[in-house]
Write a structure and sequence with these properties.
About 45% of the residues lie in helices and about 15% in strands. By secondary structure, the protein is of the alpha/beta class. Strand 2, helix 4 and strand 3 form a beta-alpha-beta unit. It is globular. The protein starts with 9 loop residues before the first helix and ends in a 5-residue tail after the last helix.
Length: about 375
């Protein structure tokens, strides 16, 4: 009887084990679904939206330069200003990137243009094609954070972007029970590089989170359509209120970049996110968030439930005040994430909270 063991060659064993470590059927299925929705060849899922940002920045060589819009998610700003430099990557911020990008590009060192459109939290838009055209003339890649709209409303790759990212935690999952990120793109070289970093850094989501996120994708079109409809109704009510200083919502004809929304968004939809400045300053903004009954005070967004938050003291609190206000994030700014509740209920909740917040602020002599 032959008792000799049949052993797998060391090289084959290593490859097999590494593939088993990084491969997961639930994740692969989710990545394929996102790639299809973003009209991309590839997609890679990560442990969070911030991990997605970190992986992309760490794919750059030391000495690289990035140009970014000024109005970005607080976590993105934190990574760009506090972490990227440690890896030898420098970031320059621009409040008007379509106008400034050509001047800000450093030949030979600028490797990425980073865009949020709509931006967080002022809902400013960027003409992706206009920026991408200039960037590609210099061999520079364009990254678009599409979290605020989801693949249902906007597909940045179709407008010239090279990479589109999402915080899956938000609209794609849609049920506030997953922490996850994803990037979609068409380049095989990018896939090889980012897959390596995904594995090497360990920024992989769990199989269960991928399963939950794919569950969320099945109702994405229904949720986002309702959220956008609700946000439009709320934005119009806010714009008509004497208690409001200004409303930021790309679904309104009054939005200064409405033409960009019509060009880039499905049916010109504005999405489920908006922000507004309330009369009465910071005190009124804080009271408004205390008086809402349906809208919950929380930093997240994109779920089935409606949320409000104060960027100056919450999501963007880590940004210096002068820099924050230069990007339009004032103490009286309230960010709103509309869920899928009945629109009239949301409108009434906003109206009653506005009245109480502004009235109390006037009584206390804090009206600004």
């Amino acid at each position: 009887m032959n008792t000799q063991e049949v052993r797998t060659p060391i090289g084959e064993y290593y490859i097999q084990q590494e593939c088993e470590t990084i491969a997961d059927l639930d994740r692969e299925n989710f990545e394929e679904a996102v790639a299809a929705l973003e009209n991309a060849r590839f997609a890679l899922a990560f442990a969070s939206g911030s991990a997605t940002t970190a992986i992309i920045l760490q794919s750059l060589a030391a000495g690289s330069h990035v140009v970014s819009v000024s109005d970005v998610y607080g976590g993105t700003h934190r990574y760009f200003t506090k972490v990227a430099a440690a890896h030898g990557v420098q970031v320059t911020f621009s409040p008007s990137i379509e106008l400034d990008v050509a001047e800000l590009i450093r030949p030979g060192s600028t490797k990425l243009i980073w865009i949020e459109t709509p931006s967080n939290p002022t809902l400013s838009l960027v003409d992706i094609r206009a920026v991408a055209t200039i960037a590609h003339q210099h061999g520079i890649k364009v990254v678009v954070d599409n979290t605020f709209l989801s693949p249902y409303i906007q597909n940045p790759l179709d407008h010239g972007a090279d990479i589109v990212i999402h915080s899956v935690t938000k609209y794609i999952n849609g049920h506030s029970d997953v922490l996850m990120g994803v990037a979609a793109f068409n380049s095989e070289a990018l896939k090889e590089r980012l897959t390596f970093l995904q594995n090497a850094i360990g920024a992989v989501p769990s199989a269960f989170d991928c399963w939950l996120a794919q569950r969320g994708l099945k109702t994405l079109h229904l949720r986002v359509r309702q959220a956008s409809n609700n946000a439009t109704i709320v934005a119009k009510a806010l714009a008509a209120s004497s208690n409001v200083v200004a409303v930021n919502y790309p679904g309104l004809d009054s939005h200064r970049q409405r033409k960009v929304a019509i060009k880039q968004h499905r049916d010109g939809m504005g999405g489920g996110m908006l922000s507004f400045r309330i009369k009465g300053g910071k005190a009124a903004a804080e009271r408004f968030c205390q008086h809402t009954k349906i809208f919950t005070l929380a930093e997240s967004l994109g779920g089935v439930e409606s949320l409000v938050e104060l960027p100056s003291g919450m999501t963007h609190a880590g940004i210096p005040k002068e820099e924050r206000e230069a990007a339009g994030v004032f103490d009286d700014l309230v960010r709103v994430s509309c869920g899928i509740e009945e629109p009239e209920d949301l409108r009434k909740d906003i109206a009653q909270a506005l009245e109480k917040a502004v009235a109390q602020t006037k009584v206390n002599g804090n009206n600004a």
